[in-house]
Write the structure tokens for this entry.
Amino acid sequence: MIVGELKPLEEIIEMIEGHRPLLVLACGGCTSICLAGGQREALQLEQTLREKLGEQGKEFDAQVATVERQCNENYFFELDELAPRFAAILSTACGAGVQFVAERYPQIPVLPALNTSFVGYDRDVGWYEENCRTCGDCVLGAANAARGARVVGLDSSPDMIA
């Protein structure tokens, strides 16, 4: 599962400056499971932005929508009618989801609300164990097959193989 965390609020506010109306787009996939980017978190983010910008005397015109998985085109048909109504999309998906949405709607700026942290196991609610850095040069299978080894670290160097 891909794990992410919300960007600092000030960074998000800076990114969305001048983009109204704004669609806050939740992802029902990995970032929902890791409690960073699902519908509940997107609603909380929208409310927090509304309050913070209101304190600054700024209007905030936004709506929240959810796509089951922002990395899969099979879930976008309803959004295809909604998205063109917005000046920008603030996505709570991982980097792959943000890029997929940007590719699907090239005329609309798509802004990331999260930082993708890692790929990992979902051990329990709120407990995620990093087990892949997506380095592009995986040695885990070869190391395990050749030596019957258990990988004890995420570094692909031989020193990290027990």
About this structure: The chain has two domains: 2-118, 128-160.
